Structure formats: structure tokens, C-alpha cells
Amino acid sequence: MKPVEIKKDIFWIGSVDWNRRNFHGYSVSHKGTTYNNFLIKDEKVTLIDTVAEEFWGTLQCNIANVLGKDAKIDYFVINHLEPDHAGCLAKAIEKYQPEKIYTSPMGQKAMMAHFHYKDWPVEVVPTGTEINIGSRNLQFIETRMLHWPDAMLTYCPEDKIAFTNDAFGQNWATSERFADEVERTTLERLMKEYYANIVLPYSAVVLKTLKALGEMNLDIDMICPDHGLLFRGKEDCEWVMNKYVEYAEQKPQNKAVIVYDTMWHSTEKMALAVATGLADYGVSVRVMCMKNNHHSEVMNEVMDAAAVIVGSPTHNNGILPLMADMMTYMKGLRPQNKIGAAIGSFGWSGECVKVLNQWLEDMSMEMVDPVKVKHVPTHDTMKQCYEQGKTIAEAIKAKLA
Q1: Which of 117, 270, 307, 385 has its CA 20 to 30 A from that of 41?
Q2: What is the model's pLDDT at position 115?
Q3: What is the value of pTM for the model shown?
Q4: For residue 375, what pLDDT is reported?
Q5: Residue range(s) occupied by CATH 3.60.15.10 in the chain
């Protein structure tokens, strides 16, 4: 895609990755993604971030489209060193020979660890640092752990624009550049998916950072994340920041997610009985088998659920591998404010629910008694599963009261 002038002399010069389906090796991105970076034409021409290495050619073309074939870039601002945003950095430095490269204190450490540079003109800019590039000033604010330690926000007060790196992003390859040009429901769903799988474990930091930004009284009418659509106008900027507060607070909804794997369908039958008990008592239910759902798709549903019910048969004195993967992934994302319960079937040893319970307890969930069945569930044991669903529904109602 060609450069887009998003404000006077400020250009989006990013790349659209239409075919990306595996994001960072752990999350699905059904709609692709974008790598957004920006170029400011002023007395000191300034590049904000680069793009993934495979789009180096696109980046050079976009810069030439804005500045001409003999482009000169004076300053680089590097908000984040993850390879999808700094993948072209070494090549860009070699080609454009900037006078200065600005990055956060943790960014400088990450830059050295990634590139092992010797003579780059790197200047560290902790929070509160301001530089002048001509008719504009750039202010730097460290946003550590959103979602890497090096993360930094760059703010231009003259244009009321915040370059926020991974914060407020979504994985969506589009020809449109702004959130107000696309369907809002899809945008919100993709924002939630991005948050659930990338930002969720840092929710406490999100709330602290947004509070600190609010106290700075920054006048923002454009937010430019490094993935997906950009937000313009005070209304949309307030909307996306409020959404992040909502996500970070992790207030549970009247919803339960049952995630399981099954060998000979016994655990599956149990899961469906629990789901019936929940639904009959007014709880919205998602039933997700790991053979048919990626762990990141499950987390999309878990994020705002009040309860998580996990199930597996016993396998080699533990649980099935896909459930072990799911539990590892979920624990790493640290969901909060959940009710937890386990179900499982077994043949000759029955460790499954003990193992699952331990995972849930390690995530500080409010526990409901498990149900375990030997071989095939009977009418009575199916009734136990139904009653477990009812008990969880009652716990959800009490939690939300």
C-alpha cells in the first residue's frame, strides 16, 4: 500500500501482511495484520519505527514516495524493538545514516542485545525527554511492559498525535487506515482478541499507565498503534482508551467457557452435561474442544468469562497434550476474577481432575468441586455434571451480584 498522509507532513508508511495467519508463533490472526510505521517531514526528517524484515523493500519504496529517491532521514525514533517493528532497523541505519537514534533506556539494552551494534548514534530518552525537530516537538514516555520492557510512547503536542507501538493494536490487514472507515463490531472483536492473547498478563500495568497518561493531561486526537487501524478524533481516542480500561479491569460477564479434550467421548459427554446445567440456569456458555480450537481462540472467550471449566481424560498419569498446552498458555496470560472447575474420565488411574485442579488453583481461581467418571458416564454421573453446571451458575450469579 502507498503512503497515507495522516496529518500535515506526517505519513503512514507501513506494510500490510495480508497472508499472516500465525502471529508471533502463538496466536492466530485470521485477518492478517499490518506493521505500521510513520515518517514526519520537518526540519529534521524523522522515522518512527520500521517494519518486519520481509517488508524492507516496501519500506524503501514508501520512503522514496514521500521524500524522493535520494531520501535523507535525520532522526530515527524506535518505540519498540520486537522484530516485527525493528526488523529492518540495521538495514535502514546503513542506508539512511541517521544523525541520531532515539530509544528508551530499556530500548537501548534491547537494541544492543538484538543487533550488537558498535557505532550507532543512539541516544537514550527516558520519560520526560523532549526533542525539537523543527516546527514540532516530540515527547517520550516509557510504557514498560506494554507489552515488552522497552515499550515507549512518542507524543507530538503540535499535532496531538500519540504513537503507541503495540498498545491499542489489532491484527487486521486492510486497505483502510482509520478505525472510522471500518465496521466497528469487527474492530472491537479484533481489539479484544489482541488484548486477550498479548496484553492480558500486563493488565495491572495498563491501568497504571493509562492513569499516569491521564494525569499528564495530554491533548490527544490521534492514536497510532503499530498494528491495525489508527484512531482519529477525540471521540474515537477516548473510546479505545476506555476499551483498554474495560479489558484491563477484567470484570467478569455472565458467561462460562468449557474447554476440554476427549479420547473416547466420555469427557465430551460430561462437558455437554455441564453446559446444559449452566444454560438451564441462565448462564451463556461456550463449549470448546481443543481438537477444533486454537488456544488463542479459547483465550478470546476466557478473557471476559466468569467461569472456566476444564476437562480431560487421564493420559499417562496426567492429561491429554492439547489440554496441557491450553493450561500452560492460559496460566501464562494470568486471567483474573474467575471461577474454576474440572471434569474428567479415567480407566485404571484417575489423576486428571487433580492435575487440572492444580492448574486452576495456581491461577487463583475460586474453585468448585470437580466431577470424575470411570470409563463411560452413567445417567447418575451425567446428573452430577449437570448439577456441577448448576452450582457454577449459582456461583456466577453470586459473583456478579
Answers
A1: 117
A2: 95
A3: 0.92
A4: 84
A5: 4-248
pLDDT over 80 (residue 318): no
Sign of CA dihedral 72, 78, 80, 82: positive
Q: Which residues contact 378 (CB under 8 A, 6 or more apart)?
A: none
Give the torsion through C-alpha atoms of 290, 291, 295, 298, to 10 deg.
Answer: -50
CA dihedral 73, 74, 77, 83 (to 10 degrees): 40
Within the chain, all domains assigned CATH 3.40.50.360 are found at 256-395
Set of cell numbers at residue 103: 530509544
Place 349 in a pLDDT band, splitting at 50, 70 and 90: confident
Whether the link from the prior residue into 147 is cis, omega within 30° of 0, is yes
Show the cell assigned to 230.
489508527
pLDDT tens for residues 7-49? 999 999 999 999 988 887 778 888 999 999 999 999 999 999 9
**Catalytic residue positions, numbered:** 24, 80, 82, 84, 147, 166, 194, 227
284 phi, psi to nearest 5 deg: -75, 135
Report the pLDDT value the prediction gives residue 240, as an integer from 0 to 100. 95
For residue 32, how many C-alpha atoms fall within 13 Å in the half-sphere facing its CB?
Answer: 11
Q: What angle do CA 177, 182, 188 make, to 5 degrees?
A: 105
